[in-house]
Amino acid sequence: MKKLNYAIIDIGSNTMRLVIYETTKSNRLREIENVKASSRLRTFLEEDNTLNQAGIDRLIDTLKSFQEVLATYTLQDTICAATAAIRQAVNKKEIETQIVQKTGLNIRILTEEEEAYYGYLAVINSTSLQEGITVDIGGGSTEVTYFENRELKESHSFPFGALTLKDCFKKSIPATEEITKLRQYLREQFATLPWLQNREVKLIAIGGSARNLAQIHQNLESYPLAGLHEYQMFQKDIMEVSNYLTSLKPAKLAKVEGLSKDRADIIIPAIEVFHCLYQTVRAESLVLSRKGLRDGILYEHFAKESDSSLFPNVLEESIQELVNDFDLNRKHIKHVQSLTEQVFDFCKENGLIQLDKQDRRLLKMASFLFNLGEYIDSESSPQHTFYLLANRTIDGLEHRERVKLALVASFKNKTVFNQFIQPYKSWFLKDDRTKLLELGSLLKFTYCLDATRRQVVERIEFKLKKKIVLIQVYTKANALPEEYQTEKQKKHLEKAIGKDVELEFITL
């Protein structure tokens, strides 16, 4: 499939961005260029909501700089979307006219409903969440939505954003009474929407302020994993960041690790929005989505062009994308999955390993990706496999689940497993660690049954005896390489099931 490039320009109240995407082999979108400009268009709105000429000139100059980047790409389509600062301007028609005359670009001014909808659309196309509330804090507005069974149920746009809320503070580090007053205002605003109250679901945060909040927290915690998408925080974590920032002197605020310089003066009011909304919802946790408005617009646009579903199985598609990216052998994967299912069912039915449907799901995912690090180097394949899976964003998986997948798919032996899990040991109970070790052992064994990727094994049968398990492997051709590898690696399975394993290879 020929790769196609799409561009989107996002004209926000605080920042403007140009993002260019390419289609992948899996027909998904991958970001390949991201250019940001701090425009602060909101600050150019006069008291009568006219965007003054200085603001229009800054907007046009920024668009022209973006066009120089666009000229280096062959693009299937370019979308230019504007949000609150332009939407709220009374001279929006004049703004559009000047943009067309001086850049040739046609802008689409999003309604409040559209802005909220695209945030929701981005979330359900990049996570596996079935229910939740999204919040996207812009410079001049804040959008919230509620979805259930992945369907949008409610949405609203509040006429305040990080830039407008910062006017509540005289200085970048607010006084205690200023924060108290802001919190009261936010609680009153959120109380106007009954559907926000006490939902007890996850709160999904979108946008630059949310990213900065997560980045600061990761740095404070010396977080061992790369990536922000689906990073999870709790109320104590939000307060930890808030207390840290408000304790600083103004000169040090802009130098905080993880905080963009252009957000230093608006991050504290933005965090208050997250905190107050978290309390209103009684959220289970706050989850960061790196996908937002721009992605939502393109998901809709791309879906119309390709006639694909707007609501795919996000995780399955992400796994397929990895299979494509690393040119993994699909016949080999399918065969290993079949063998793994057989061993899994035998172990479960006979109580050799305590297994459930979540274990089956994890093992199936890992069987798609087992040993993918061989793509880089066969000798150190487990190390590459673990690093790639643990540190690559996989849409549909929260961070803890991503580490579990990486541990099973990279399994070599107990020693290497313990090395890999060490930075994340506190994330898992002892029983969880044991289960992951067992699943890795099981997958390593079945992988060896197709060591030459010829699919020579027709079926396997099991005979459970008091101290041993006899595994009869029926093959359609000579299977000496498979026999050698499974004999060599069966010790891991033996430790997992607590019994010796005898192998008998039978050529049909």
Walk me through the topology.
Elements: E1 5-11, E2 15-23, E3 29-38, H1 53-70, E4 77-82, H2 84-87, H3 92-103, E5 108-109, H4 112-124, E6 131-137, E7 142-148, E8 151-158, H5 162-165, H6 176-190, E9 203-206, H7 208-220, E10 232-233, H8 235-246, H9 250-253, H10 267-281, E11 286-289, H11 293-306, H12 314-325, H13 330-349, H14 357-369, H15 381-391, H16 399-409, H17 414-421, H18 430-448, E12 457-464, E13 468-475, H19 480-497, E14 500-507
Parallel strand pairs: 1-4, 4-5, 6-9, 9-11, 13-14
Antiparallel strand pairs: 1-2, 2-3, 6-7, 7-8, 10-11, 12-13
Helix pairs in contact: 1-3, 4-11, 6-10, 7-8, 7-10, 8-10, 13-14, 13-18, 14-16, 14-18, 15-16, 16-18, 18-19
**How can the largest sheet be summarized?**
6 strands, mixed
DSSP strand count: 14
Residue stretches low in confidence (pLDDT < 50, at least 5 long) are none
Average pLDDT reading: 94
Instruction: Tell me the helix content.
Output: 40-55%
> What is the CA-based Rg, rounded?
27 Å
User: How many helices does DSSP assign?
Assistant: 19
